[in-house]
Design goal:
- By secondary structure, this protein is an alpha/beta fold.
- The chain is 33% helix and 25% strand.
- It has two domains: 170 residues, Peroxisomal Thiolase, Chain A, domain 1 (3-Layer(aba) Sandwich), CATH 3.40.47; 150 residues, Peroxisomal Thiolase, Chain A, domain 1 (3-Layer(aba) Sandwich).
- It has a five-stranded mixed β-sheet with strand order 1-7-6-4-5, with helices on both faces. It has a four-stranded mixed β-sheet with strand order 8-13-12-11, with helices on both faces. Strands 2-3 form a two-stranded antiparallel sheet.
- Helix 3 crosses helix 4 and helix 8 packs parallel to helix 9.
- The two termini are 16 Å apart.
- The relative contact order is 0.19.
- The mean pLDDT is 97.
- Bound molecules: oxa(dethia)-CoA.
- The site of oxa(dethia)-CoA has 21 residues, from helix 2, helix 6, helix 8 and strand 12.
Length: 326
C-alpha cells in the first residue's frame, strides 16, 4: 500500500512586520537579525485571525488541490503550540469550520516538529487501514505568545499555517518514511512557562512574572538543533537506501539560516538543493515545513520522481524527518 500526498495548502496573515519596524520596538537592527538569522520580515495575525482560521484556510487549499470533499476525511491532525483554547482541540474547531463531519480530529503537541510528528501518526493510521484520507495541518499564531520587549526572541517568530492531504493509493508524491525522536532532558531550554497546570494563567504571579511568553536558551538550542537534524536526516536516508547526493530538495524547519546552512553542510546538500523562505516568514514553528512544501509544490520546484527530505527540530526536544518521492 502506498501513501500519496494529493494536496498541499498554506495560509498567511496579510500584515508584514519588517526588521526596520522591529528596530522601533526593541534595541535591534536589520543587520543583526539578517546576519544572525537570515530573517528579513514575518507575518503577524490581525484582529479576528486565530490559529483555527489560518488552519482552516490552509486545509481548504490543500483539499481543493487534492479534489477531496471535507466530508470524505477520516482524520484531521493539527499541530500547534498556540491553540485557540487550551481545550477543546483546535482540530475539532477546524473540523467544524471545514464541515468535515465524518473525521476524527485531534491536536498534536510537538512544537516545531509537530508537522513531522503529524505525518508519522497519519502514516500509521493509513498503513493499518484505520483511515483512507487524512488532513494534516501545522498552524501557529506565535505573535500572541512572544514577548515583544525581549529582543532575543521577538525578532524570530511569525504566524501562518500549512497543510497536506494524505491518501492511501497508488501514484506520485509518495510518502516513503517518517522518523520521530524525543529528548526530554532539555525540555526547559525552549518552552512557555505559564498557562499550564504548573503556572496557571489564573494566578496573577504568572502574568506579573512575564511567564506567558516563549522562553529560550537560543545558543544551546542552536547546537542541539544542528546535531539532531543531521541525525534525523541520516536516519531517513539510511531507511530508504539513499545517500545525500540522491536528495533533490531539502525542506528543513525554517528556524535560522545558520542552522539550515550548518545542517546542510554536514549532510553535503548545497544551497541549490534547499528550499528556504524564512527570510519572508521567520520561524512559524510547526507551520514552517508545510508552508515551504506548498510553495515549492506550487512553484514546481520539485522535479517528478525527485527525493524530498523534510527535517525538523524544536521544543521538547522533539525532532524528526520524512522522505517523499515526488
Ligand atoms: O524553532 C526551533 C527552535 N529554535 C531555534 O532553533 C533557535 C535556535 N537559536 C538561534 O537561532 C540563535 O541562537 C539566535 C538567533 C536565537 C541567537 O543567535 P546567537 O548567535 O546564538 O546569539 P546570542 O544569543 O549568543 O547573542 C549574541 C548577542 C548577545 O549580546 P551580548 O550578550 O554578546 O552582548 C545578545 O544580547 O546578541 C545580542 N542579541 C541581539 N542583538 C541585537 C540577541 N538578540 C538580539 C537582537 N538584536 N534581536
Amino acid at each position: 500500500m502506498n501513501i500519496r500526498i494529493t494536496g498541499t495548502g498554506s495560509a498567511l496573515p496579510g500584515r508584514i512586520l519588517t526588521n526596520a519596524e522591529l528596530e522601533t520596538l526593541v534595541d535591534t537592527s536589520d543587520e543583526w537579525i539578517t546576519t544572525r538569522t537570515g530573517i528579513k520580515e514575518r507575518r503577524i495575525a490581525g484582529e479576528g485571525e486565530y490559529t483555527s482560521t489560518f488552519a482552516a484556510e490552509a486545509g481548504r487549499n490543500a483539499l481543493a488541490m487534492a479534489g477531496v470533499d471535507p466530508r470524505e476525511l477520516d482524520l484531521i491532525i493539527l499541530s500547534t503550540v498556540t491553540p485557540d483554547f487550551p481545550f477543546p482541540s483546535t482540530a475539532c474547531i477546524v473540523q467544524d469550520m471545514l464541515g468535515a463531519v465524518n473525521a476524527t480530529a485531534f491536536d498534536i503537541s510537538a512544537a516545531c516538529s509537530g508537522f513531522i510528528y503529524g505525518l508519522s501518526v497519519a502514516e500509521k493510521y493509513l498503513r493499518s487501514g484505520s483511515a483512507k484520507k487524512i488532513l494534516i495541518i501545522g498552524s501557529e499564531v506565535l505573535s500572541r505568545i512572544v514577548n515583544w520587549k525581549d529582543r532575543n526572541t521577538c525578532v524570530l517568530f511569525g504566524d501562518g499555517a500549512g497543510a497536506v492531504v494524505l491518501e492511501a493509493s497508488e501514484g506520485n508524491h509518495q510518502l516513503c518514511s517518517t522518523h520521530t525522536f524525543s529528548n526530554g532532558a532539555h525540555w526547559n531550554l525552549l518552552y512557555q512557562p505559564g498557562s499550564g497546570s504548573r503556572h496557571p494563567a489564573t494566578d496573577s504571579r504568572t502574568i506579573d512574572g512575564e511567564m506567558l511568553h516563549i522562553t529560550m536558551e537560543g545558543n544551546e538550542v542552536f547546537k542541539h538543533a544542528v546535531r539532531a537534524m543531521e541525525e534525523a536526516s541520516l536516519k531517513a536516508l539510511e531507511a530508504n537506501g539513499l545517500v545525500a547526493d540522491d536528495i533533490s530538495l531539502l525542506i528543513p524547519h525554517q528556524a535560522n539560516r545558520r542552522i539550515i546552512d550548518a545542517t546542510a553542510k554536514r549532510l553535503g546538500i548545497e544551497a541549490d538543493r534547499q528550499y528556504t523562505n524564512l527570510h519572508r516568514y521567520g520561524n512559524t514553528s510547526s507551520a514552517s515545513i508545510p508552508i515551504a512544501l506548498d510553495e515549492a509544490n506550487r512553484l514546481n520546484v520539485i522535479k517528478p520522481g525527485g527525493k524530498v527530505l523534510l527535517v525538523a527540530f524544536g521544543g521538547g526536544f522533539a525532532y524528526g524527518s520524512a522522505l517523499i518521492t515526488w
